[in-house]
Amino acid sequence: MGISLKDDYQKLLKIKKKYITTDTIDTSNEKFxxxxxxxxxxxxxxxxxxxxxxxxxxxxxxxxxxxxxxTSSTSFISNNKNEWK
Length: 85
What we know:
Blueprint: H1 5-19, E1 24-27, H2 35-47, E2 51-54, H3 59-66
Parallel strand pairs: 1-2
Helix pairs in contact: 1-2
């Protein structure tokens, strides 16, 4: 049986719980972070002005997601105006 969304969510909760009171979220022990774990984690880090430490295996992947711009394959909705960005 493979990894499920529930497993990804439990990993997210475990990471957040461990680093909720620190300024840095350390994911260096994780060799892979599924988007369903990583994207909420990035949102949490940005919202609470935290940094994310990552594994060498995930650095380029995380950096690419952090620097993603609006493209034909991605759209973002503003929380405030409910508009596409």
